[in-house]
Design brief:
Elements (H helix, E strand, L loop, with lengths): L11 E3 L12 H9 L2 E5 L5 E5 L2 H8 L4 E2 L15 H11 L9 H10 L4 H5 L2 H17 L4 E2 H18 L6 H12 L5 H24 L5 H12 L4 H32 L1 H9 L4 H12 L5 E5 L3 E3 L2 E3 L4 E4 L1 H4 L34 H18 L4 E2 L21 E3 L1
Parallel strand pairs: 1-2, 3-9
Antiparallel strand pairs: 2-3, 4-6, 5-11, 6-9, 7-8, 10-11
Helix pairs in contact: 6-7, 6-15, 7-11, 8-9, 9-11, 11-15, 13-15
Length: 408
């Protein structure tokens, strides 16, 4: 990396920067926003990458055609130190969509995007409500304290995406367990390798079953359409299935639990939310901004990109610091305050540009239904543990809670 490309104010910092407050981004982010909106950082393993913090610069970066999400690029800014077998599989499956670039990404996304329109997702609202009610009934009938993660957040998010894609009910717990095992801080490298292998084998068998006997589900429609278009190879078809299932429940489950905790810790906002049903859509957007469970987007450049006075050269790693951009005071008034009445914030919690989350319409409806149902039906809900006793997902790609004991 050429030091001459650095702006005069840019310095090196270790990254990632840990949170100090369960809800707020690291205090260092505020310093970066004010003094060093573009800087260089040192990643685990010693590799360098550019860090972009300011809201306007992150938006500019994420739509630049010189940006690539190719995980296999030698300068891609890797944060997680994955076992080689897991990394290879992630690279293979990632090329299906998340880590693909145009023109391949464009036609693959078009194949899937039609299944996640606002209209289609709104049609699922009544079924989502049934799923939430059923799991909440079961949680309320069980012992206290309950675990909001295991008893509500994970099963609701998993069941919604599983039904949508056509995953048999008997298979759901297995892929939930393996997904958790891959990221849990107590997992060994051997655990991660085994869980990754079993997930790959399962998704391959699921695709094969849809090819042999298509149903009325999303995955069956995608498989049938792909037989006509040939957009996905067999391997990439397995990859897109994995991406839709895992991303579809991991992020939403994390937001359900963490958003509930945030509202409980801000009782005036909880009261405003429950007192005005029309506030739900705004509250969801504000919680997405405030919490930013995916705080950074990792990319590599394929051409020179100029941001302000800084030029990022082709072939350099770059990190869009969404967690800072979503708390940028130049974009949001008093960003440190959770304000459920805030006019729809232009947050980037679903990403920005061509890789913006394809399932965002589904996630919004799920979160709205869960929060509104939970606080309406259980007005006495409260945490059964002190805030500093809760196990937060500090090392997971999706910030949240491993467990959340609650009583009522």
């Amino acid at each position: 990396m050429d030091p001459s490309t650095m702006s005069p104010s840019a310095t090196e910092h270790d990254f990632p920067i840990p949170r100090e407050c369960p809800f707020a981004p690291p205090p260092r982010y505020a310093e970066l926003l004010e003094h060093e909106p573009i800087s260089q950082v040192t990643l685990p393993g010693g590799r360098k990458a550019w860090l972009v913090a300011r809201h306007d610069l992150v938006r500019q970066l994420m739509v630049d055609r010189g940006l690539s999400s190719n995980l296999a690029h030698p300068n891609y800014p890797m944060i997680l130190q994955l076992p080689p077998e897991v990394l290879v599989k992630q690279q293979e499956f990632g090329q299906a969509l998340i880590n693909a670039d145009p023109p391949e990404h464009t036609e693959r996304r078009q194949m899937v995007q039609a299944e996640f329109t606002s209209r289609r997702m709104r049609e699922l609202r009544s079924r989502i409500q049934e799923i939430v009610d059923d799991h909440l009934d079961a949680m309320l009938a069980g012992p206290q304290p309950a675990d909001l993660v295991a008893d509500l957040a994970v099963p609701v998010a998993s069941m919604v995406i599983s039904e949508l894609l056509g995953v048999p009910a008997a298979d759901r717990k297995s892929f939930q367990d393996n997904t958790r095992l891959m990221a849990h801080p107590t997992s060994t490298p051997q655990d991660s390798v085994r869980a990754n292998r079993e997930l790959g084998e399962y998704f391959a068998s699921l695709v094969a079953s849809k090819q042999a006997a298509p149903g009325e589900d999303l995955l069956s429609r995608l498989v049938t359409r792909n037989e006509e278009t040939g957009v996905f190879t067999p391997q990439l078809l397995v990859g897109i299935t994995q991406q839709l299932l895992l991303a579809g429940f991991e992020t939403t489950a994390s937001m359900i639990a963490l958003g509930t905790l945030a509202l409980l810790e801000n009782p005036e906002q909880q009261a405003a939310f429950t007192g005005d049903p029309e506030l739900a859509p705004n509250a969801v957007e504000e919680l997405l901004r405030y919490l930013t469970i995916v705080s950074a987007v990792y990319r590599v450049t394929t051409a020179d990109i100029k941001l302000g006075e800084t030029t990022i050269r082709a072939g350099e790693g770059v990190i869009a610091l969404v967690g800072a951009a979503n708390w940028d005071p130049a974009e949001f008034d008093s960003p440190e305050k959770l304000d459920t009445a805030r006019p729809r914030p232009h947050h980037m919690s679903f990403g920005y540009g061509i890789h913006q989350c394809i399932g965002q319409n589904l996630a919004r409806i799920e979160l709205e239904v869960v929060y509104r149902t939970l606080f309406t039906r259980v007005p006495t809900l409260h945490s059964a543990a002190a805030l500093d006793e809760l196990p937060f997902k500090k090392t997971s790609p999706f910030y949240g809670l491993w467990e959340f004991p609650v009583s009522w």
